[in-house]
Amino acid sequence: MLSKRIVFHVPSLRGGGAERVWVLMANELAARGHEVTLFVWNGEGPNASLRSDAVQLMDLGMPISKGGRFGKALTIRGLLRSAAFYRRLQPDAVFSGPDFANLITALALYLSLSGARFFPSFHAAAALPTKDLGSRIAGVTGSVVAARATKGIAVSAGVGEDLVQRGAARERIAVIHNPLPPAGATPTRTYPWQAELDALGSGPVIVTAGRLTRVKDQSTLLRAFAQLVATRPARLVIFGEGPLLEPLRSEARALGIADRVLFPGYVNDPAACYAVADLFALSSTSEGFGNVLIEAMAAGVPVVSTDAPYGPREILENGRLGPLVPVGDAAALADAMARVLVDPVPMERLRARASDFALPIVGDAYEALLA
Q1: Range of the domain at 239
Q2: pLDDT digit string (tens) for 315-333?
Q3: Nearest in space to 107 (alpha carbons), one of 142, 73, 72
Q4: Is the same domain home to 350 and 246?
Q5: Are 17 and 155 contained in the same domain?
Q6: Nearest residue to 336 via CA among 292, 302, 289, 367
């Protein structure tokens, strides 16, 4: 394939699945000989260190709030600067995500009069339709993105079907799963949280990772863990940062399990996180894909998950590779964790499934869009 001039746009490089995916895909397409630019409004964050030297970085250097927002005035300024960037670069193709970036990119491409092919990506299940003002605005902005898009990328078949049910043409949706990050070196560094984990006592280590937000529902995991440790010793490590840190700490204390639960924050070394795990648990209420599941499986760690729409069921092959439990059901999650700790899925089966999401395989699918 002839070399293309490609842009991947994400607002920032803070810790998050969508940001990590875009850096990985930018690296992969650059390695295939394309001229790739990673375009961000704020280039700070742990995912910045993952960028290959072959990928150019265009960073507008705009300040961002702790909640990941830019504010109205800066958003307008960022939109105009984005349009100027596309007008100057004249890319052949632009990939964007998540939703905020999709809208900004669509508008910027219109303003720049760019003829670039546009591939917005969708990483989550759509909200249930309502008649409130926010939903009407979301419908209008979604129409703007759809009108400019060459083809939308859904990170799971469930998300793709969701888009179709909400009016997208099926032939304009490509289902491309998120990639498994390349295997890193066996962790050799030591971290303070590892000593803290040892201090929690004995028992298998249950790990989860994700933003500390309502959609990840670590509250249900805490309640499930409390039921589990009432019958056997165990330890729980919740990796991630977010607005619910203190409420979750308070809940752990109220449940009487604070001395068995660790909150190390965001750790930009997944290999070290999975290396301590005997079990990985995902408690999300909604999960467009579920990158952490394939990362844990690639490390040979057994998994349990809520049956959150939509990725976990696809990844775990309808529960054959790990139990799927109802969203918000702490008792069912506790039972699933207890069963898997006693009778885990063989490591080789987990790793074989994770290999289906290898970066070169996903790279082929992205490159096919450019043909």
Answers
A1: 192-356
A2: 999 999 999 999 999 999 9
A3: 142
A4: yes
A5: yes
A6: 302
